[in-house]
Amino acid sequence: MAQKQIMVLTGAGISTSAGIPDFRGPDGVWTKHPDQMQVYDIDAFLTDKAAREYSWRWQKESPVWNAQPGAAHYALVDLEKAGMLSLIATQNFDALHEKAGNSPDKIVNLHGTIGTSHCMKCHAKYDTAGIMARLDEEPDPHCHRRLPYKGNMPCNGLLKTDVVYFGEMLPEGAMERSIRAAQHADEMWVIGSTLEVFPAASIVPAAAQAGVPITIMNMGRTQYDSLADRLIHDDIALALPELVEQTIAQE
C-alpha cells in the first residue's frame, strides 16, 4: 500500500516557535513599526540607493537571517524521511525549512526566500551568505559577473534577495504547484498561518473542494477553520512533532 501523502502549508507561527518575530501579528514587526515595510518595497529599492543600503543592512541584522530551525521544522524533515511529505508550501522567507534539511525540491517558497539572491539585470544567481559577508565593503551590492559579450566588463546590475517585495509577483508557478499538490494529497496540514494573506490562503479552499481532509494548527482562529477536519490550538513547537510522530506510527 502506498504511503499517505501530506501537503503542508506553513506560516509565521512555525517560525515564531523558533524565535523569529512575525511581521503581521499583534506584536509583529510591521504592526509596531509600519515604516519597516519600506525595507521590502520594490520601487524604493530600485530607485533609491539609501533605501537599498538600508534594506540590505536591515535584512542582515534581522532575526530572519540569523535564525535557526526549531523542533517544528525538524519534525517536517522526519515526515519527509518517512516518505509521507508531498510538498511544503511556505509563506515564510526565512529559509528555515532548507536549513532544517528538507529537500529543496519539496519546498515552494511562496513569498520567496532570503537564502538566495539574484542580479536584476543578467539574472545571475547568488548565495545570500556571500553577499552578507561582504556587506561592509559593498553596502549596495552589484553584480560582478563578467559578460563575455561586453568585453568581459562586469554586469553591474543590482543584486536583490529572492524575497518577494511589495509590488513584485510571486515566483512563477509557485501557486499552481502548491494548489495541485494540495488537491492531490491524502491530507493537508496548515501550520502556523493566520490564512489572511492571499493568494497563499486560497490553497485551503482548493484542497477542501477536492475533498482533502484538512488540519489547521494555529494558536488563533483562522477564517477557514470551518473547512478543517481537525483544529489544533497548541504550542506548535510541541504539537507538530507530536502530530508527525503519531502520523508516522499509524502508517
Automatic annotation (TrEMBL):
What residues form the catalytic site here? H111
Q: Which Pfam families match?
A: SIR2
A GO molecular-function annotation? histone deacetylase activity, NAD-dependent
Give the domain of life.
Bacteria
Query: Which Gene3D superfamilies is this protein grouped with?
Result: SIR2/SIRT2 'Small Domain (3.30.1600.10), TPP-binding domain (3.40.50.1220)
**UniProt keywords, alphabetically:** Metal-binding, NAD, Transferase, Zinc
Deacetylase sirtuin-type domain segment(s): 1-251
Residues given in the record as Zn(2+) binding sites: C119, C122, C143, C155
EC number, as in UniProt? 2.3.1.286
EC category: transferase
Protein's name in the database:
protein acetyllysine N-acetyltransferase
Source organism: Bifidobacterium pseudolongum subsp. globosum
The lineage, from the top, is:
Bacteria, Bacillati, Actinomycetota, Actinomycetes, Bifidobacteriales
